[in-house]
Structures are given as C-alpha cells and as structure tokens.
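How a chain folds remains the central question behind the approach discussed here. This step matters because it turns folding into a mapping between discrete strings. The sequence in question and its structure tokens are set out directly beneath this paragraph.
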Amino acid sequence: MASRFSSQFRLSITQALGDQLAEALGKLTRAPLTRHNLDLLDEQAEAERLASKSGVYQLYRGDKLVYVGKADKPLPARLGNHLRKISGRRNISLNEITFKCLYVAEDFTAVAPEKLLIKKYKADGHIPWNANGFGNKDPGRNRDRTVLKANHFDMLFPIDLDRRAENLTRGEQRLSDLLQSIKDGLPYNFRFQESPQFDEISVFVPSVDMTADEVFRLVAAQLPDTWQISALMGYVIMYDDKRVDYPSAWRYYRGSEVVAHQPASKPANSKDEEPEDDEEEEARSF
C-alpha cells in the first residue's frame, strides 16, 4: 500500500536488457547487406578474438526497420542466409537492404535477447517481417498445403524463377546429380523426393547459364508421368504426388507442360497466428 513515505518498486531486468540492446543498436550506422560487409564483420570478430560470434541484428528496407533476429551461430553466416534469400526474390532488391548487428558476449540464451527487442519495436509498429515467414527455412512437408496470409513474406516477395541457377555443369549427367546441383545453386529451397530410378535417368544439360525455370522444364521432361515440380510462393518441391494442386503454387512443371496457377491467400488480419521464425534445417525429402 502506497503512502507519502512508502511505495512499491518492481525491477524488470528483462526490460532493462531490452532497452540497453536497443540503445546500443541505435548508436550504430547501418551498412548495406553485401558479401563484402559480411566478410568485414567476420574479420572484425577474428581480430577481436571474440569467444562467441553469436548476437542480434536488425534489417532495414530503405529507412524502415523490417526485421529483428538473432544468430546462435556466427552472425555473418546468419546474415549471409538472408542475403542469399532476398537475392532470389521478386519485388525487392538487395540494394534496398541494410543492417546493424551486435555481438553478444554474455550468455543471454535463457532470456532470448531478440524477443526483448521484438517486443520493444513491435510496440512502435515496426518489424513487419517478424513472424510472417521471413526467418523460416524449409517449413516441411506438412505445411506445403498452407494457405498464406496476404502479408506473408512469400506472398509479398515470391521466388524468382528467372534467376540463374548456379552450380550447373554442362553435359550428360545423372538426374540425381543434377537435382543436387540445382538445390545447391538456388537461393531458395528446392525440396525433392529421392528415388533410386534417378540414378538410371540421364539428362543432358546444354548450358551452365540456365534460369531456374529453364532447368525445371528440363528436369520435368525426364520425370515419370506421376511426378511434378511445383513452384510455391517461397520454395519449390518435386514429388510423385499425382498432380496434386497446392494452394500457394503459382507454376507447375508436368512433363513437357508448364501450367500457371493463381495462388490462394487469406486476409492479412486473419486471426490464426503465423508460426514463429525458426532455424529449422532444410531437408530434401520427407
């Protein structure tokens, strides 16, 4: 009970930590999200002999703060994942993206420092990419049929099938080898069901300079009749699924046929919550 000479004081360690992290980030200058700057970040950590390379970071699009994240593994690697992801998307350019980051020496795992920052910035209406799919990797087979919200990252910035597929080798090769090369050479996930028969199928790759669309057309023409390649808004899958339609698909490769599809979406204000961004490892088959 309060009086003129007494009251109650509640100490919030987590709020204080969140405020200190935000203040430290606020003193930093944003840098373009480029490979060169990430290499410099790595060199800084080596030069200062940091015991841990984990930390927190912010991403900006133009002058707007759009994402707050953490890196349990080296910060440059996590930021490099984002660089690669954005490079394979439509409606956005890496030239728009800048970042700030803090190496966090203390072990704050238990209090989740990025969640403290998210709580703070969300109150001001910032960080629209948090909890809308940006931080996720492969969501897994069970979510392939999910209908996305209209403001989901993948709906706003779908994958670019006109982007060059890196890591290709010209010439005759096994389909199984080509599939792995495609997976390794795209900036978005390509998940495929493995099959022993792919070791027996030979494919001729005419050029190392092919787009994702061109190489998927090439592969689809070699697949058995019951297989298809489905380009979803955020990634590509290939399964023996007898031409199943996926709500968020916008292009199918079925044999020599390429079929355009209008993806479904839910209103941005739908009540169901998006799953938390995660660090789930990508998988090739389920």
Summary: Residues 13-26 form the longest helix (14 residues). Residues 141-260 form a domain with the Phage tail protein beta-alpha-beta fold fold (CATH 3.55.50). The longest strand covers residues 64-71.
